[in-house]
């Protein structure tokens, strides 16, 4: 997803192909580094239907692999050197630091986590690396005005996480893992009320994300808006399945 965001944004801005590939590779390497470390920290034993790296090769190897992916991301970014590369590297560090801060908040969350706080954490944890490919493309196109990108990505990240948690609600409750929808149930909402509340909130987040994305200069936010559309389509599909199940 992040590589596709980079490629689509870079093409809109008319960046050279080597730059497109460098930003896409850096963005995807960073994301995969975060997944390796996230699985290790959360104790998740599977990833996309396969054993998590730490579960198969051990925690020490997974930690080293995640660090290697993180370092490789910087190498990928500087492979297409331009006069703006230094600024791009600084912004990538900023995104990594913000992601780590969001992860710390997630790991520190307690069982009485509120619905609103869970959404804030989801946006803080995932938004920076969703925004990053678009921000890097803007910087390398010599456009400094990226103030709407982070808002669009943070809203998209929280909407996406709500949709994911709606899908994973039963499994997460059994496993005792953090789930945005479950926070409403823990606060006294019925399951159906919690689902409806979460879905409505996700749709509002995604709509606001699209609005912010469409204000990014030179139409560079359109790939973000398209991604928000795809997440909302998935939400609609879940509503259809729930209705079929109810009948």
CATH class: Mainly Alpha
Number of helices: 11
Strand order of the largest sheet: 1-2
**What is the strand content?**
under 5%
Q: What's the helix-strand series? A: HHEEHHHHHHHHH
CATH topology: Farnesyl Diphosphate Synthase
Number of domains: 1
GO biological process, one term: isoprenoid biosynthetic process
Pfam family, one: polyprenyl_synt
Protein name: Type II geranylgeranyl diphosphate synthase GgpS
Organism: Saliniramus fredricksonii
How would you briefly describe this protein structure?
With 247 residues, the protein is mainly alpha-helical. The chain has helices at 2-13, 17-42, 53-57, 59-78, 85-108, 115-140, 147-167, 169-175, 180-186, 191-213, 222-246; strands spanning 46-47, 50-51. The chain has a single domain (2-246), classed as Farnesyl Diphosphate Synthase (Orthogonal Bundle), CATH 1.10.600.
Could you explain how this protein is built, in words?
The protein is mostly helical and 247 residues long. It has one domain: Farnesyl Diphosphate Synthase (Orthogonal Bundle). Helix content is 79%, strand content 2%. It has helices spanning 2-13, 17-42, 53-57, 59-78, 85-108, 115-140, 147-167, 169-175, 180-186, 191-213, 222-246, and strands at 46-47, 50-51. The protein has a two-stranded antiparallel ribbon with strand order 1-2. Strand 1 and strand 2 (50-51) form a beta hairpin. It is globular.
